[in-house]
Design a protein that fits this description.
single chain; globular; 259 residues; binds zinc ion; alpha/beta; four-stranded mixed beta sheet
């Protein structure tokens, strides 16, 4: 379906509401900032910058997205992380903006580096997807996500769940199953301890991650099924060219790859 001009302007508005437009500038690299902390807390958070950069660098290299700018914003958040695309005035995706829950760093788990790796494996998979989508799909994506945010129990809930699961599967196909499982555990802890939320079953469980990581045909089936539900042709094309071929190489899937 090709949206008409009126639909396009409505969708562009939706996209603009969801995604802060950013000016063109240098591409690539990682920028970390802190929001909503007093000076003492900010200093404590800054001590984690090198460990955040290490995790981001490892995922960026595995995903081959060195051309994207990764902006990490440490702030109060419901979940552990979320990502929006950084879009230029020429409607090109040039990076991803990852919000990171400051509580993860102020009350860190023992396996923080593993959790950070899993978190960025998920969040930067979003950035890689945004980069792979054409403008029409990106607008449709923004419109659907906006509708979901406005009405979490509405018609777009199933779509959003499928897309989040595809994002987890993307991380697993790149060998991040172990860190991803650690991240899910930390998220469960965070959610149970601080803020019960209902979106929980949006993501893969530890058991599902382990199964998909051990069984290439299970992983392929799951990816195919989610792509069909997500219905973004440019993302499906990208997955056929770049994602599914990875699954045929069992050595990239070992749970122990990043342990
Ligand atoms: Zn996500």
């Amino acid at each position: 379906m090709t949206p008409g001009p009126r639909a396009i302007s409505a969708l562009l508005l939706a996209l603009a509401l969801l995604i802060p437009l950013s000016a063109c500038g240098a591409r690539g690299g990682t920028i970390i900032t802190i929001r909503g902390s007093d000076p003492d807390e900010a200093e404590a958070l800054r001590a984690y910058f090198p460990r955040i950069e290490t995790a981001v660098d490892e995922v960026v290299a595995a995903y081959g997205i060195e051309h994207l700018t990764v902006r990490v914003i440490i702030k109060p958040l419901g979940g552990l992380g979320e990502t929006t695309p950084e879009i230029s005035y020429t409607a090109r995706v040039f990076g991803g903006s990852v919000s990171l829950n400051k509580r993860l760093l102020l009350d860190p788990p023992d396996n923080l580096d593993e959790v950070l790796l899993g978190l960025f494996a998920h969040e930067l998979a979003h950035a890689m997807h945004y980069d792979a989508m054409n403008t029409v799909d990106l607008i449709i994506f923004g419109q659907r996500y906006l509708a979901f945010y406005n009405n979490p129990n509405g018609a777009n809930q199933k779509w959003a769940r499928s897309y989040e699961r595809l994002t987890d599967l993307t991380a697993i196909a790149h060998g991040f199953a172990g860190p991803l499982a650690a991240q899910k555990q930390a998220s469960t802890h965070n959610i149970e301890k601080y803020r019960p939320r209902k979106v929980w079953d949006f993501y893969l469980t530890g058991d599902e991650i382990a199964l998909a990581a051990m069984d290439g045909s299970d992983l392929t089936q799951r990816i195919d099924a989610r792509l069909e539900e997500v219905k973004l042709p440019s993302l499906t094309n990208w997955a056929k060219r770049r994602l599914l071929p990875l699954v045929e190489q069992p050595e990239t899937l070992a749970l122990s790859t990043h342990d």
